[in-house]
Amino acid sequence: MEADNESTYLKQVHLFAGLSDDDIQELASVVKRRAFRSGEVIFHRDDPGQVLYVIKEGKVKICLISPDGQEISLVVLGKGECFGELSLLDGLGRSADVIALERVECYTLQRSDFHSSIMRNPKIAIQVLEVLSKRLRNTDQQVEDLIFLDVYGRVAKKLLELAGTHGVQQPGGGTLIDMRLTQSELASMVGASRESVNKVLGYFTDKGFISTDKHRVTVHKLNDLKRRIY
């Protein structure tokens, strides 16, 4: 019964789209289920990489942490997305830290099983390339934003991005970003100090663009935020 539940879920994961029922069943028989607490480090940069993670519930952040503890968040991933695939392909250590933003449940797949799946169905390799290409483009965009946008523009753009990927429409209007988002977290996403982000959030709140409540942000005026990017 548990394998059937896993098969049903894995069929919905983009990475495994196109696999036959038999291949999905075989995949479901070898994946393991793991759970992580909010704030738990799933792996560190340079750790050996032998496992692919597919998120079943919850959200994680992929980030880089400097020797002095400064953090830059690269991306937030949620249900149905995967991480850890790069090390499975090149055999090198992890390229970044991954930290649970809330309680997370994952399916894990060992490198040898992942390679076997690719050999049986090369379409998986194409879909892995799509994932990697998307993340590379996102990284390029982050570099461009740091060069050309001020802090107000970077925060506005990030809030719109999070509202698009993790937003939940509210009955009374507005889009709730469905994740715990502290000023420090947001600062690490836009490459700014917490004090600068605090000032920007205060300005956006005063203008009615957003509202905040217990580390949750609701976006009310999408178009006004868009106009503030540039």
Summarize the structure in words:
This protein has 230 residues and is α+β, with helices and mostly antiparallel strands. 45% of the residues lie in helices and 24% in strands. The strands form three sheets. Strands 1-8-3-6 form a four-stranded antiparallel β-sheet. A four-stranded antiparallel β-sheet has the order 2-7-4-5. Helix 1 crosses helix 2, helix 6 packs across helix 7 and helix 7 packs across helix 8. The longest helix has 26 residues. The model has no long low-confidence stretch (mean pLDDT 91).
Gap between N and C termini, in Å?
Answer: 53 Å
Q: Tell me the structural class.
A: alpha+beta
Could you give a short account of the major beta sheet? 4 strands, antiparallel
Low-confidence parts: none
Gyration radius (Cα, Å) is 19 Å
Strand line-up in the sheet with most strands: 1-8-3-6
Overall helicity: 40-55%
Query: How many runs of DSSP E, i.e. beta strands?
Result: 12
Q: Roughly what is the average pLDDT, rounded to an integer?
A: 91
Give the number of helices.
9
Overall, the morphology is globular
Beta-strand share of residues: 15-25%
Order of helical and strand elements = HHEEEEEEHEEHHHEEHHEEH
